[in-house]
Predict the structure.
Amino acid sequence: MSEQHDTYLSEWETRQEIAESMIPMIGKMYRSSGVVLKIYGRTLINASPITLLKLHRYVRQFEKAELAIQDSYKILNALQKMKLGPVRIDLGLLAVQYNQDTRDLSVKDFLADKLAANIREIQEQSNAEPTDVVLYGFGRIGRLLARLLIERIGSGNKMRLRAIVVRKGGDNDIQKRASLLRRDSVHGSFKGIIKVNEKDNTILANGNLIQVIYASHPKEIDYTKYGIKNALIVDNTGVRRNEAELSEHFLAKGAAKALLTAPGTDVKNIVFGVNSDDIKPDDKIISAASCTTNAITPTLKAINDEFGIIKGHVETVHSYTNDQNLIDNYHKGERRGRAAALNMVLTETGAAKAVSKALPELEGKLTGNAIRVPTPNVSMAILNLRLEKETDKRSLNNFLRETALHSSMREQIDFTTSTEIVSTDLVGARKACTIDSTATITAGDSCVLYLWYDNEFGYSCQVIRVMQKMAGLDFPSLPTKD
């Protein structure tokens, strides 16, 4: 027994040592070249050695065996020697493909073959000029977007957070804004160093200098005064919802484009991965739709493309939000005046109807409702669908698993086989949704799907993807499926 224990311990120490050697390689490729490395869709950016080992174990959900860290190390070592620009590369998929099909090739030749079609595009992206970003509003989504932008600091970064715009709340406003960025009750502490300069109204976060601008209307702002030009303005306030209102951002000198982090009325509503090709270089105003629309639309598209959807109902079990009351008090909305942390609150959602803005073929086919529940983050969408084709649980889950791994929506759809997963396990999930495959129900031409989603962080990741597209940074995701 002692010898067996020593063997297991020795194996663990070897794997941990390899993981520790991979971390600086991953970080350097990200910060110097903008290379985002993943394992089966799970990001390796800012991962610890233990997290890296756990992600290798995660591969067992999709393959017959755990991914050997020795194999992914060989792929990573070869990748860092290549001249790469901004790109998303799935280390896990590459390692598995190399093991399964190409043992007769060297790792270098294998990678050259896999990346050959994209290498010129990747290198051209590395020469692109960085885009200045301004966050207009600094609430839940604004602060998470700030965290995501700040973690991208480095010469390979092509989007730079230059400023945030808020209304001044008091003499110590900037200290409070910085404190809210530094500490978060749901998402934990900011991983880095934050310094505040009250004289200049700036926040220095991990070397990223962010100007805090106090204004009540865009017309009061001159971004060029701070060296900001051709900026992408990300409106997180939700106050302006249509083209005319959002165009007010262009009254500020230095503003070039505007992105709304809420559903828009007469502008393009984009769910990245579904209709992101609708974003054109000359589009000045875009909406990133809602968190729920982003959560359900990719899966609905996949199901509709494969099985056809006749009709369906979407029920959202949604965490309470800041537009509800903490205790019973007057509220202009129905039921939302009741204490959010004590009640399940039945309310409406426009997400089901909004799906058709990104997926016109589902126009008029979906109904929807929502229940706000006493949790601060992570929600669930229940899709009850009638299909054109009959299916069974195993076939449907196999299709969804394949979609999560290999489709063009693999950054949006995650897939789990866990029988123990609960909402807090999804805090910080970077994909738009996670399909709970053990809960899938089928009956002939009907199915019920359960989709988890981090309605704050997962949505913010979708917004970042739209921002990149608007900035002309359309990073390829590799490897593509053979």
User: Anything to note?
Assistant: The chain has three domains: 2-125, 131-262, 291-455. The first strand starts at residue 35 and ends at 39. Residues 149 and 393 are 39 Å apart (CA to CA). Residues 291-455 form a domain with the Dihydrodipicolinate Reductase; domain 2 fold (CATH 3.30.360.10).
